[in-house]
Design goal:
mainly beta; Jelly Rolls; 8 strands; four-stranded antiparallel beta sheet; 0% helix; 112 residues
């Protein structure tokens, strides 16, 4: 299933980080979306991370058998009304062969 988003490719034994400087509203929000690998990939796995101001709040290591989108939700309520640096990180976990790491339908949703 196709999703609108961002595709990245981490380097061998390294990470690629997509960084956003944000001013969050005073209302509590969650960052939600999906992560996955390109269809038909032969990757040995990718590590996905969400960081806020250098603090890791979510992680998932796909493993080589990942074949579907993995949903994620990160509670950002502790950062309400603050300026932050939001980072979406993809880690090759070693070999970078076929590591087309995708972030799909990423957006903010209000929390109760």
């Amino acid at each position: 299933m196709a999703r609108a988003g961002l595709t990245t490719h981490p380097p061998e034994d390294g990470q690629i980080e997509t960084v956003f400087a944000l001013s969050l509203p005073p209302q509590p929000l969650a960052l939600r979306g999906f992560v996955g690998l390109r269809d038909g990939h032969q990757s040995q796995g990718v590590g996905f991370r969400v960081k806020v101001s250098e603090r890791e709040l979510w992680r998932w290591d796909s493993g080589p058998a990942a074949a579907t989108w993995q949903p994620f939700s990160v509670d950002l309520s502790q950062y309400a009304g603050r300026s932050v640096i939001l980072s979406l990180v993809a880690d090759s976990l070693g070999s970078y062969a076929f590591d087309w790491a995708s972030w799909g339908d990423v957006g903010f949703a209000p929390l109760p």
